Amino acid sequence: MVLNPNSNKPIYVQIAEWLETEILSGNINSDEKIYSQYQLAEIFTINPATAAKGLNILVDQKILYKKRGLGMFVSENAKEMVLMKRKSETLQQMIEDLVSEAQRLAVSEAELIEMIKSVKKEEEGRL
């Protein structure tokens, strides 16, 4: 993963999202120790405080938990929490943006649904 310093998203948010993606993809599992702020800082060549801020977002959301003196670990239901979060926040926002753009372009609901079905079918063919 490469962080985008030109993105509208702060680096610490990109770090948190990257860790969420690692959890979703199964690269990091429940109760597994996660990277420390110093490891993340080295991996991404960023300030450790920035990395810590990204980790703390996930701690605040209960996706990660701290064990004093041992580090941070992935919560038992982290994958499910990330899935629900992404569905309710990220996907919802994308759908709202898509519907708004479709309205500006005078795309009917039926056309939009057909476009979504077509893209989904293409994606399923790639898997």
What does this structure look like?
Strand 1 (64-67) and strand 2 form a beta hairpin. The chain folds into 2 domains: 11-77, Winged helix-like DNA-binding domain superfamily/Winged helix DNA-binding domain (Arc Repressor Mutant, subunit A), CATH 1.10.10; 79-125, no CATH class. The protein has 5 helices and 2 strands; from the N terminus they run αααββαα. The chain has a two-stranded antiparallel sheet with strand order 1-2. By secondary structure, it is mainly α. It has helices spanning 11-24, 37-44, 48-60, 78-104, 109-126; strands spanning 64-67, 71-74. Helix 1 crosses helix 4 and helix 2 (37-44) packs across helix 3.
Which features would summarize this protein structure in a list?
127 residues; mainly alpha; Arc Repressor Mutant, subunit A; 2 domains; two-stranded antiparallel sheet; 5 helices
Give the secondary structure arrangement, pairings included:
Blueprint: H1 11-24, H2 37-44, H3 48-60, E1 64-67, E2 71-74, H4 78-104, H5 109-126
Antiparallel strand pairs: 1-2
Oligomer: single chain
Instruction: Say how many strands there are.
Output: 2
Helix percent reads 55-70%
Rg: 18 Å
| SSE order, one letter for each helix or strand | HHHEEHH
Distance between the termini: 22 Å
Average pLDDT:
94
- Net shape: elongated
Structural class: mainly alpha
Question: Could you provide a short overview of the structure?
Answer:
This protein has 127 residues and is mainly alpha-helical. Helices cover 63% and strands 6% of the residues. It folds into two domains: 11-77, Arc Repressor Mutant, subunit A, CATH 1.10.10; 79-125, no CATH class.
